[in-house]
Amino acid sequence: MSHTYDYTGIEARWQGIWEQRDTFRALNPGDEGFDGGKPKYYVVDMFPYPSGVGLHVGHPLGYIATDIVARYKRMTGHNVLHPMGYDAFGLPAEQFAVEHGVHPKITTDKNIANMTRQLKRLGLSYDWDRCVETTDPGYYKWTQWIFLRLYKSWFDPVAQKARPISELVQALEAGDYDIGADGSLVADTAGGALDTLGGVEPGARKWTELAPDQQARLLDEYRLAYLAEVPVNWCPALGTVLANEEVTNEGKSDRGNHAVYKRPMKQWMLRITAYCERLADDLGMVDWPEPIKLMQRNWIGRSEGAEVHFPLAFGSAESSEDVITVFTTRPDTLFGATYMVLAPEHPLVESLTTDEQRQAVNDYQKQAATRSDIDRQAETKQKTGVFTGAYALNPVDNDKVPIWVADYVMMGYGTGAIMAVPAHDQRDFDFAKQFGLEIKPVVLPTQDWMKSHAPEGCDKEDAHDLMAHYVAAADTFDAAFGGMGAGINSENAEVSLNGKLTPEAKDAMIGWLKQRGFGKGTIQYRLRDWLFSRQRYWGEPFPILHAPDGHIVPVPEEDLPVALPEMEDFKPSASDDPDAPPQTPLSRAPESWKYVEVDGVKYTRELNTMPQWAGSCWYYLRYLDAGNDERFVGKEAERYWMGDNGLDLYVGGAEHAVLHLLYSRFWHKVLFDLGHVGTAEPFGRLYNQGYIQAYAYTDKRGVYIDAEKVQEEDGKFTAGGEPVSREFGKMGKSLKNAVSPDEVCEQYGCDTLRLYEMYLGPLDQSKVWSTRDIVGVHRFLQRLWRNFVDEETGELLVVSDKADESLKRKLHKTIKRVTDSMDAMAFNVAIAALIELNNELVGIKTIPREVAENMIPLLAPSAPHICEEIWKRMGHDDSISTTDWPTHDPAMLIEDTAEYPVQVNGKLRGKVTVPTDADDAAIEAAARGDENVAAHMDGKTVRKVIVIKGRLINIVVG
After folding, report:
1. How far lies 534's CA from each of 160, 370, 584, 585, 614, in Å?
2. In the β-sheet with 240-242, what is the strand arrangement from edge to edge?
3. Which of the two residues, 889 and 66, has the higher pLDDT score?
4. Which among 442, 419, 492, 441 is positioned nearest to 332, based on CA atoms?
5. What's the pLDDT band for 706 if we cut at 50, 70, 90?
6. Over 50: is that where the pLDDT of 38 sits?
7. How do strand 417-420 and strand 339-342 relate by DSSP bridges?
8. Reduced to 3 states, what is the DSSP secondary structure of residue 122?
């Protein structure tokens, strides 16, 4: 009977034992057997979407890494929580269901079952009892509960935290605040003076003076979850609103390539902008890669500058309706503002446009609605725009400036309007050149800049002439000067910026604007409030009721969850008409679900659903206490596992660097402010794994073809007899180059797959998959097996004999190297060290137990099945995952001897081993005594002997 390495039987057996024994179950405080004396370690993968095609070998890269960490931490004495779940709502599942006529729950459950099977086949040590699915009503009950926390809260700008909206009502009823003319809160001081929180002018009213519907509308202006009419990406063919990330640069839906239009719609919004400052500042609290922090800060986009009010030429500045407010980071350039631009969606466009220009403006607005935000902002795109026929007044000199509409200005940043300073902004410069608008310089560039950009015929060596030419004709230079410098052409009777450097000029202008009531210094953020509605069926229902008179009533918390209704027709109402009113799938829900009667009043449920992002914002908290029916997470479990800094390790792709992390941090901070969680940040340490890349192939049309159908001969590639082109790409369905882990596990075993993926290179770097190269790692495991088990008899080859000094030193060096590599997540280095140690065992008939008892635990996190089997054969009844991690003896790292390469005239001729304390004479004598070295010295004169201590010996002969 053969006793060769039977990975199929070994892996199936140990996966069954782990499941039967519940080996990787994590205990919570209060559970029987919980040991609170151990340190905790909470490690989480960004959970997957259960795709119908299942996993390819690129997906488990991060999962295997976190599993190695989890197993290592258990062996180093930690209580480890390592869970898994599924982000299962969203458009892809709904679209697949629509296309195939199958309910999304059926396909989603099937996909989850398949992916769970694949993950278990990889030997991942998840606590499967804690598995969550965002589509489970028991889960999204608490997603709805968190939404109600947002709806019932406001952000206190003084305390800089979320507080219950009921506390704002109490403050209003107590007269702590009055309400300004524009709805801003005004603190009513003891002396009766008004200190405006929002910069509003006096003219405030008391809370008690407002009618009930006015009071309700005021509170809605401050809730963290609110309804608003906003411009959205509307895809009539899909019948839903799309996030910016779901729209291509060409203004098409990324799923189906359908036309997408900008149109205003009433949507649920989350006031994430209230947290801009904290979201940026608190990045200093977490251990994340610096590029990810930078991406977050850039997305938040903090800018210091000024708000400036431009009166309209046909009105006065006394009414807010008669001004256009812009935000600028360069108030020092206000004297150079020669025109204004409004975004096509700006609400003032309709009222400002003259009758003569209305048709042109309307046509332009329709055209702009078909372009994506990325396309509109592309630097290389030719600038387009239309004059509205209206003018505003520049507040510094009362000059009339024309008001244009152009799609390079976005409603999503600032105020949706800009003051155009073409001499000092390249986009404005290009626009002005194209449409013949005035270019007025107000900041003097450096001499080097003027030399580089001056027109032909200008004396570039005469500094005075060059400056005069720029001041008189900046439009003849080939670019805008966007840097800092001294002010020119910038004075009126009350303020002069001439000669002032940019920082001083900014302060002077902001002071003048505030004094004259034309503006103020302010901070703007690029981040916009989170659009939270989707016109879909397959998503979390909102726990909201709409009364006949239009006011909103939250569903009582005891009535949660609001479950999705059973519907046969869940298709969105597709249309070719971009102006067609949206009809959500839930508008066709049974009336018994759609309508709710309370105290004789018939309410309508909210008929939109939440976006896929909702469930993924907080799943790491539900893992902590997944079976809790009374709370979204138990307090004791949350405080223990989240500790002081949140997750100990969060691993996922860099593609989630911005939105998922921002959204999760926002929800977590609201829960923290309201006292529901104990940490200010959810993810203490973040690690981004790289990607698995693979060869992809395209035919002569540029269409990707199945990589498995490609044949190679003499360095050329063909498919079906036709030549194809080869390229590298991220492994996946779209490039048709995916390799299933099922196939690899079947052919080589999952221990081989785990080792190979980790051995490919540093975890945070992308690497190339090659099925042919996996054989080398498989041979390592086969050799390991033969070192420990006699393949003919099945006898264990581990004996109680002591290891010799050399092997013992190698063992302790390996322990040190592997331990250091585990702590650094340098798993490729750890595996390389173990391969070297295994090679040392080849040729040894039996393995000393002291070597075996240390080596097998070192390998166990990476290749757990084969290690469990050998460990069991060595006489251990408990799982190897519960044994202690080996420790090295520092004395064993100190070498008694050193090996020297010996060169003769610079060429390697031999190696000698000498005591580490040998002097140069002894080292030279050893080198001369080497047989091969002596042969190359024979008959020659030794000119010089160079001994570099601890490194090499070079003998120069002639």
Report:
1. 30, 20, 9, 10, 11
2. 240-242, 225-235, 261-270, 530-531
3. 66
4. 442
5. confident
6. yes
7. antiparallel
8. coil
Three-state DSSP at 448 gives: helix
Supply the mean pLDDT for the chain.
91
Q: Of 765, 820, 663, give the one whose Cα is nearest residue 62.
A: 765
Helix (H) or strand (E) holding 364: helix 358-368
**Binning pLDDT at 50, 70 and 90, where does residue 379 land?**
low
Q: Which two tokens stand for residue 946?
A: 């160079």
Residue 292 pairs in a beta bridge with: none
Question: What is the Cα–Cα distance from 257 to 49, expressed in whole angstroms?
Answer: 21
For 868, left (φ over 0), alpha (ψ -120 to 50), or beta?
alpha
Closest CA to 867 of 84, 125, 22: 125
Evaluate if residue 319 carries a pLDDT over 60. Answer: no
| HSE, side-chain direction, 13 A CA sphere, residue 505 | 25
User: What is the C-alpha separation between 436 and 430, in angstroms, rounded?
Assistant: 10
Residues 6+ apart with CB under 8 A from 466: 447, 450, 451, 454, 458, 459, 460
Q: How many CA atoms lie within 13 A of 186 on its CB side?
A: 21
Type and span of the H or E element at 663: helix 659-673
pLDDT (tens digit per residue) in 8-18: 999 999 999 99
DSSP 563: P
Token pair for 204: 């405030």
Q: Which strands sit side by side in the sheet containing 302-311, from one edge to the other?
A: 323-328, 302-311, 519-525
| pLDDT tens digits, one per residue of 406-455 | 999 988 667 889 999 999 999 999 999 999 999 999 999 999 999 999 99
| Buried-state track 193-224, b at ≥16 Cβ within 10 A, e below 16 | ebebeeebeeebeebeeeeeeebeebbbebbb
What are the pLDDT digits (tens) for 768-795? 898 888 999 999 999 999 999 999 999 9
What average pLDDT does this structure show over 302-331?
A: 82
DSSP calls for 181-217:
TTS-EEEE-TTS-EEESS-PPS--B-GGGS-HHHHHH
* pLDDT reported for residue 831: 98
Instruction: Output the six-digit token pair for 930.
Output: 């080497």
Angle CA(466)–CA(471)–CA(472) in degrees, nearest 5? 95
pLDDT score of 954: 95
pLDDT tens string 447-460:
999 999 999 888 87
Contacts 24+ apart (CB under 8 A), 587-595: 589/565, 590/565, 590/566, 593/565, 594/565
| Residue 626 identity (one-letter amino acid) | A
| Torsion on CA atoms 710, 711, 717, 721, rounded to nearest 10 | -90
**Could you tell me which residues come within 8 angstroms of residue 234 by beta carbon, excluding any fewer than 6 positions away?**
241, 242, 260, 261, 262, 263, 265, 578, 582
Q: How far is CA 343 from CA 324, 415, 418, 829, in A?
A: 12, 9, 9, 54
CB 539 within 8 A of CB 332: no
Q: What gap in Å lies between CA 262 and CA 366, rounded to an integer? A: 9
In terms of Cβ atoms closer than 10 Å to its own Cβ (0-12, 13-18, 19+), residue 109 is: middle
Q: How confident is the model at residue 191 (pLDDT cuts 50, 70, 90)?
A: very low
Reduced to 3 states, what is the DSSP secondary structure of residue 231?
strand
Looking at the DSSP bridge assignments, the partners of residue 521 are 306
- Quick one: pLDDT band at residue 327, thresholds 50, 70, 90? very high
More confident residue, 818 or 187: 818
Residue-by-residue DSSP string for 755-806: HHHHHTS-TTS-EE--GGGHHHHHHHHHHHHHHHB-TTT--B-EESPPPPHH
